[in-house]
Amino acid sequence: MRRKYFFVLLVGFAVLACWFPGRSTTVTNDCSVKDATVYAGQRFLAQRIEIDNTADSTEFGVQMVWVQNAGTRADYLTWDYVKQVEIVESLTGKVLRSVVPNVTGFAELLIDNIPYKVPAHGKGKIELWLTLKDSVPGGLKFQAQCRIGGVSGRIDVDYTECPAAEFTVGTPEGLEEILSSNLPDQAVFGGQRFLAQELTLQDSDADPYAVNVGSLVVKNSPRGDPLGDSFFAKIEVCRASDGAVLGQTSALLGISSSGVRISLTGLTVSDDGSVTIQVWVTLKKQVPPERKIKLAVEVWHSEGVESFFKDAPDEGPVFTTKEPGGLEATDVTGRGDSIFGGATAMVQRFKLQHKYPNDPNDVVVTGFKVRNEASDPQLSSSYVDGIEIRTEDGTSVAKTASTGGFTGGGVF
């Protein structure tokens, strides 16, 4: 009977010693890790733990770490959204153990087989790193509560002096800004392809994500007299830096009502970067005059797991359809001079140019009409032997010796 009783006492003492070791090792939370915002897919340092073994004459082995989220409310992160948990040696950055959580909800996670030892009369630090899944929703919180243990026993981390840092999952907000280039109002013509809008897309936020632009919704929305849908031939979206076509459509019915969607490929705004895009419009050959085009653009995009749309500023140019305007002639003759009988003299210089500077239509000049409009006394037609029109380089383009109408109705 005495042997049996003695055996039970030994077993009981052994178990007690395991969980409440007779040693002076202390385990505390390092104060250097602060509250922060983290994002889906991100790897972050959740806690740094200091193990003080200076007062003990034997090494302290850490084989296991137990981790639990301090809160269990609906706004606290569960293990279901954690992709990976790592225990890292602070001194070297070496990953001592990496596991995929094998528990769900708010259960305590055990990370075992950790090969870390703190020498006798020494100190050491280990770190808890978490990697979140891409699917984690914003607003959830994580605050680690840890215990460490091994053959030397198990000790709760002391958070008295330094409470554990609390991490909140941030929500991406999409593009921060869309800037519209200052393009001028101008006339446009049937069959013309023209730059109708230039936009700079900017990302500048705390999250680590690039922005993927999936499509634009383009609408013709002038204040009055919109060009009819059937007169639009094509809309293209191009990258300004290299002219690459990112998307286009010729299905433009509805552009003046609900707008048309143009799907884009290969348009990514790098994290905290910017990209400039251009919207080009091509008109059909025949368009009615004095109709207006002013584009309104919605930019549809995603950042992280969130999707957004953002309106471009209402600052784009207004285009007015015109019929071909022909040429305008501007007199650029210098000061008059004397002319003498029998001599050929330049009596007028004029510049020909399109009435509308961006008119893409060629103009064919079929003739000139020349008339003497000088005040009396006018030089009689009978004293003029011939009239010739030359270009600036001296090439003759028209001439006549029939000058009878020079001082009357004019000479063709």
Strand tally, please? Answer: 31
The shape is: rod-shaped
Provide the helix percentage: under 10%
* Major sheet description: 5 strands, antiparallel
Which structural class best describes the helix and strand composition? mainly beta
Low-confidence stretches: 1-21
Rg, alpha carbons: 41 Å
Number of helices: 1
Q: Alpha-carbon distance between the termini? A: 142 Å
Strand order of the largest sheet: 1-3-10-6-7
Q: Estimate what percentage of residues fall within beta strands.
A: 35-45%
What is the mean pLDDT? 88
Textual characterization of the structure:
The protein is mainly β and 412 residues long. It has one helix at 2-19, and strands spanning 26-29, 36-38, 43-52, 60-62, 64-69, 82-89, 95-99, 109-111, 116-118, 123-132, 141-142, 144-150, 153-156, 167-169, 177-180, 186-188, 193-202, 211-220, 232-239, 245-249, 260-263, 268-269, 274-283, 292-293, 295-303, 306-311, 319-321, 327-331, 350-354, 387-390, 396-400. The longest helix has 18 residues, at 2-19. The chain is rod-shaped. Mean pLDDT is 88; it is low at 1-21.
